[in-house]
Amino acid sequence: MQPSHRTIRLTAIALGVAGVISFGSAGATGFQIRENSVKNQGRAFAGSAVSEKDASVVSNNPAAMVNLDSTTIRGDVTAIDLTAKFTGNGTAAAGTPLARPMTGGNGGDPGDVTPVPALSIVVPLSGSFEKLTLGAQLSAPFGLKTEYDPNWIGRYSAIESEVKTIDLTLSAAVKLTDRFSVGAGFVYERAEATLTNAVDFGGLICRMRPAACAVPNTPYGPQRADGLAKVKGDDTGIGWILGFQWKPTDRLAIGYSHRSEIDHDLEGTVTFTKPASVAPLLANTVYNTAPGGAALTTPSTDTLSVSYAFSDQFRMMFDAQKTDWHSLQTVEIKRFDGIDISKEEFQWEDTMMYALGAEYDLNDRFTLRGGIAKDETPTNDTHRTPRLPDNDRTLYSVGLTWNANEHLSVDAAFTRIQIDSPDVDIVSTSGSTLVGKFKGHANLFGVSAQYKF
């Protein structure tokens, strides 16, 4: 069934704004990024809520900041290298007499090397406030970038997708007893997005004005007059985090944290680039630059971590993390004058990530670590798009810490992510179909330095 003319005329805004949240992350499923600590990465993110000697706990579990006994500054950067390849085919103007096979290649490798930075500081207080620890972190918890060749077979669904989020987290922890602490944090989040996709203006003209396509040697028709829709938008939102840490024995530590949802009202502008052959027929229409927006809720997360020291040199960690992706069911796109534009279906489901890691102190200078994790996808075969060719994945990590001296330590980590091949079978807003399969993987290279005053 073809979309109505009204929907066809307005779907570029819908595709762009909804595309902000249908954007895949190589670091984790959905559009989540966990890479705020190279030390955690080396354990496949196991033990993130009970980390020792790691200032990244500011946002992973503020209660664990009490593990640091002096002011500590930490800087992390992880380069995420996503590789993907599409195999399949498509049909332009599917379901109409004008239907014909889609032209174009497989899009090339949509991934690129993307750095993800984080900066943390933890400050234990003294005197009358000696049980209080404060912390702050800048991090990027959501978003990445993909870009296909502009003339690829799925160009009407996606070309460029770039999402950037920056979080400022301010946290405090209180050590209630020698073995139990609680913590809380305030999260200020800024989100920016840029998205592009091709628009089949030639096919649109034929559906709007069939007589125009009946003329011999007409320039109109599916894939004969492609244009471009570009959407840019941004917003800020506020959230919070709560957590606790309990150490029932000297060897066992248990931590839990909850990060809240953060609501965004994305505000953006869609810009159309129209070929000269169709521009006169589309003058003074919704295919001129226009504002639009949509509500977006980034998901809450619940993390349970356990760490056990089998000896003074050897420790193992476990993480179970739930991400509440059910907040992303549909996205309703509205113009700023209140007119409904479109409703995009996602129907995402909550996911679980399980991680098991270990680390071994070779000596006072060097610590080796490794881990494996299983991460579920929130997507499904019915609504999956090439903006998010996501599926379940397995993470394999190794890492190393070098304690240069009593103040400075340096961490390095490598993670290989194997992604189950996802299927795509969708109809674009230009009325074309795309059917096929993606195969991909990702490599994560991380390095960090931490200084303890």
Structure, explained:
Belongs to the OmpP1/FadL family. It is found in: Cell outer membrane. It is a multi-pass membrane protein. With 453 residues, the protein is mostly beta strands. Residues 1-24 have low confidence and may be disordered. The chain starts with a helix and ends with a strand. The protein has five helices and 21 strands. The protein has one domain (20-452): Outer membrane protein transport protein (OMPP1/FadL/TodX) (Porin), CATH 2.40.160.
Task: Give keywords.
453 residues, mainly beta, Porin, 14-stranded antiparallel β-barrel
Please provide a brief summary of the model.
This protein has 453 residues and is mainly beta. It is built from five helices and 21 strands.
Give the termini distance in whole angstroms.
66 Å
Which sequence of SSEs, written as H and E, runs from N to C? HHHEEEEEEEHHEEEEEEEEEEEEEE
Strand sequence of the main sheet, in spatial order?
1-3-4-6-7-8-9-12-13-16-17-18-19-21
Mean pLDDT: 85
Total number of beta strands: 21
Instruction: Sketch the major β-sheet.
Output: 14 strands, antiparallel, barrel
- Radius of gyration computed on alpha carbons: 25 Å
CATH architecture: Beta Barrel
* Number of individual domains: 1
Determine the structural class based on helices, strands and strand pairing.
mainly beta
* Unreliable runs: 1-24
Percent of residues in beta strands? over 45%
Give the CA-based shape: elongated
Annotated CATH homologous superfamily: Outer membrane protein transport protein (OMPP1/FadL/TodX)
Q: Helix count?
A: 5
Share of residues in helices: under 10%
CATH class: Mainly Beta
Fold-level CATH name: Porin
